[in-house]
Amino acid sequence: MIRFAFLSSLGVVLLGAACSSESSAPSPATRAGAQAPPGDTAPPPAAIVPAAEPESPVQAPGEAPPTLAPLEAIEAPPLAPGATPDNGGPADDGTGENAATDPGVEGDGNFTISPPYANSPDLANKNAPAGRTFSFDLGPSQFYGGQHQVDVFIPEQYVDGAETPFMISTDGLSGRLVTASRNLAVDPDPARRVPPLVLIGVTPGSDRSGEYDTVSDKFWQYMTTEVMPAVLADDAIAAAYPNLKLTSNPSGRGGYGCSSGAPAVMGMAWFGDFTRLLTYSGSFTALQRSATYPDGAWDYPSMIREAPVKPGLRMFLNANQNDIGSTDAESTHRNWVIANQNMAAALTEKGYHYRFVYSEGTGHCAGEVQGQSLPDALVWLWRGYTAE
Fold first, then answer.
1. For residue range 320-333, what is the model confidence (pLDDT) as tens digits?
2. Is 2-381 in CATH node 3.40.50.1820?
3. Virtual torsion, Cα 234, 272, 279, 127, nearest 10 deg
4. What CA–CA distance (Å, rounded) separates 143 from 211?
5. How would you classify residue 350: left for phi > 0, otherwise alpha for psi between -120 and 50, otherwise beta?
């Protein structure tokens, strides 16, 4: 076993938009009657303490013991710095980057973390630039029923008219994601600095599992043809940033999701043009079967193995010891630990940049795991990104 710590090294038609509001702080609120997401909400800058993750649809324990556990690296993939997946020679990755700008394998591989857990210092109030948050609703669409709440965080560093990298946050706007991105955008260590990110949080509609767990291009189509254009067309956002541009470069498009939010963002990459994925307790299981994908998101590992490499894809995965179905047989296709281990193995075999964190003594979408690991995961996820 190799032990090391990575912790410090380093438009379109608008449908159904209404009820727009804007705040000077990242504090989106879940409106009455909206479906409660398993993700967190962002606190105001006067007291930037990441909100505890509410319980997932099954279970989400969340005490946070006081000290930080080391990371244990296991069988890091044999991809040399500067190499491209499955091919050691220079190759255009389809995003304008090539092997010469590949960030290398630092932080790639499999890791185990153990109790006691502690929140990362990058989730504390560091008086980082506050940015602005806007909120509006989208009604039923051609893709999904029910109302979706959209919260948009725009960093203070954003210059109107420039193309900006961004992430889609499923189950609403994650407070941890907002706080970490704010702090890391101004980190004094260039190796840990993350580009200022626009963050778009979207709650699910009337059928969360059908929306998130279904393996298809539908969620990507919804985000790119309805949600993103609605962000640009929102009255409050357009008044503040009349020339806001979300980058079309796949290298600057990312997604965050916990539980069923993970296969949702995986679909944005697999069927679409997103490349940076941050997932916790991913439901890569047989929750939504179809004729094309008889085992639902459980089929993703075999799809990864059988398909050509997706240029530029980077993926952070997590599973926890007491995750959903952790004692169930693999044959059930409902064991979240095995599901994520299968994802990591397939990504390894194809030579992708990936980072898999297994947590001991914790359950589904554990808040203490995200509190400890999310900022470093964000640093790793955005390695190699070059601003427009």
1. 999 999 999 999 99
2. yes
3. -40
4. 9
5. alpha
